[in-house]
Prior knowledge:
Blueprint: E1 2-9, E2 12-21, E3 26-30, H1 41-49, E4 53-57, H2 74-88, E5 93-98, H3 100-112, E6 117-123, H4 142-167, H5 170-173, H6 180-192, H7 195-204, E7 220-225, E8 247-252, H8 259-262, H9 264-275
Parallel strand pairs: 3-4, 3-5, 5-6, 6-7, 7-8
Antiparallel strand pairs: 1-2, 2-4
Helix pairs in contact: 2-3, 4-6, 4-7
Amino acid sequence: MGKVTVGRENSDTIDIHFEDHGSGRPVVLIHGYPLNGASWEKQQRVLLDAGFRVITYDRRGWGKSSQPTQGHDYDTFAHDLKILLDHLDLPEVDLVGFSMGTGEVTRYLAKYGNDRIRRAVLLGAIPPFLLKTADNPEGVDKSVFDGIKEAVVHDRPAYFRKFLDDFFNVDMYEGTRISREAYQNCFIAACLGSSYSAYKCVDAWLEDFRDDLPKIDVPVLLVHGDQDRILPYASTAARLPGLIKDLTFVTIEGGPHNIGWTHPEEVNKELLDFLER
Length: 277
């Protein structure tokens, strides 16, 4: 529907594709890896029917946005978001991030404050800090992420197949909460993304957000599945109470990573209740 230029790489611009629909108070939906803005279909319709203006966009490297080989870090991702919000001149925005998108929400609020932002929602959160270090023993061993990068380089489509199996907990929910056709649609979206972004985004997952979280001064809703195999519940969501001042925390029992697709009734109810307060 539209695009905004956020930078340049050599002879070409770096453009972010966005969709802007409806009227009312704006809600910006920020997608997860390895999908794009179209992955919000189960939330977009509900929000539009509730009277919100809904903006989705494709992160650089994914969907219809440019596929540069630079800027695959959260400072840049948050700046891309700021350019989009400034371009649309959006007031009183509700930011909703899923998975990688929760990093944009967190870094944006820490760097740019709440001048435009009313509330924030984190679905399947990546903060506070995913990497295991001496002062972060709850994290995940770096060897896991090195293995992911090796798998992406070796056979990216094969890696996406394994990733999406855990994204939806296919062994639990295929045929009930995730159809083979919906799974295949996500697989195609993943493969159409930039191969370089698929590799470099893994480094962004290791971002330390612990200093960002106390700077968030808007109400935040956190929704996370307790069977998340991508961003394990104990290493992520369970650690956020106490790190964010005004936090509402909802656990989806049996929920995999992509709870927005597998458990939309529960997620959408919590989302609307929070945004309509």
